[in-house]
UniProtKB/TrEMBL annotation:
Belongs to the TRAFAC class TrmE-Era-EngA-EngB-Septin-like GTPase superfamily. EngA (Der) GTPase family. GTP 1 binds at residues 9-16, 56-60, 119-122. The chain holds residues 1 to 166 of 489 of the full protein. It comes from the Bacteria. Associates with the 50S ribosomal subunit. The gene is engA. This is GTPase Der.
C-alpha cells in the first residue's frame, strides 16, 4: 500500500526543494525568486524504506492581488483533497508569519493528517523559528533543511506510523 503526501505552505519556504530531494529528479522548478512554480506537480518519492506519491503545490508569489491569493488557496485545497497526509512547511529562519496562520487554518479544517516542518533550519539558524512553530497548534515541528538534506530521517520516522494506515 502507498499514500500521497502533499507539500503545502506559503511561497519560498522550500517546498519545491524538498519535493526535488524526495523525488530525486528535478521535476519541480526551484528558483531564488519566489513564485516560479505555478502548478501542482506529482512525483514518486522515496524516503528510507518508504515509497509514496508526493505533490508539490504552487508557489505563487505573495499576493497583494486578491485573485492570486484565492488561487493559492484553491490550489492548496486541491492538493489537500488529493492527499492522505499534508506536510505543512514553514521557514524556520523567517519564523511564523500571518500567511502561515492562514495555511494552518485551511489544514485544520480540511486535512486529517498534518505534519508540521520547519525548513531552512540547518546549523543553528532556525532555532527561534522552530520554537515559534509550536504556536501553530499542529504539534511538534520536524526540523528540516531541504537544501542540505538534514532532518530527512526524522521526517521518515514521523511518516512511518501514518504510512502503515494506508
Ligand atoms: P517554494 O516556493 O516553497 O517551492 O520554495 P523553493 O523550494 O523554490 O525555495 C525557495 C528558496 O529557498 C530557494 O532559494 C531555495 O534554495 C531556498 N531553500 C530551500 N530549502 C532551503 C534550506 O533548507 N535552507 C536554506 N537556507 N534555503 C533553502
Ligand atoms: Mg515551489
Amino acid at each position: 500500500m502507498s499514500f500521497t503526501l502533499a507539500i503545502v505552505g506559503r511561497p519560498n519556504v522550500g517546498k519545491s526543494t524538498l519535493f526535488n530531494r524526495l523525488v530525486g529528479k528535478r521535476l519541480a522548478l526551484v528558483d531564488d525568486q519566489p513564485g516560479v512554480t505555478r502548478d501542482l506537480r506529482e512525483g514518486a518519492a522515496r524516503l528510507g524504506h518508504l515509497k509514496f506519491t508526493v505533490i508539490d503545490t504552487a508557489g505563487l508569489e505573495e499576493a497583494t492581488d486578491e485573485s492570486l491569493q484565492g488561487r493559492m488557496r484553491k490550489l492548496t485545497e486541491r492538493a489537500v483533497d488529493m492527499a492522505d497526509v499534508c506536510l505543512f512547511v514553514i521557514d524556520a529562519r523567517a519564523g511564523v508569519t500571518a500567511s502561515d496562520h492562514v495555511f494552518a487554518e485551511i489544514l485544520r479544517r480540511r486535512s486529517a493528517h498534518v505534519i508540521l516542518a520547519a525548513n531552512k533550519a540547518e546549523g543553528r539558524a532556525g532555532e527561534a523559528g522552530l520554537l515559534e512553530a509550536y504556536e501553530l497548534g499542529l504539534g511538534e515541528p520536524v526540523r528540516l533543511s531541504a537544501e542540505h538534506g538534514e532532518g530527512m530521517s526524522d521526517l521518515a520516522a514521523v511518516l512511518d506510523p501514518i504510512a502503515e494506515r494506508f
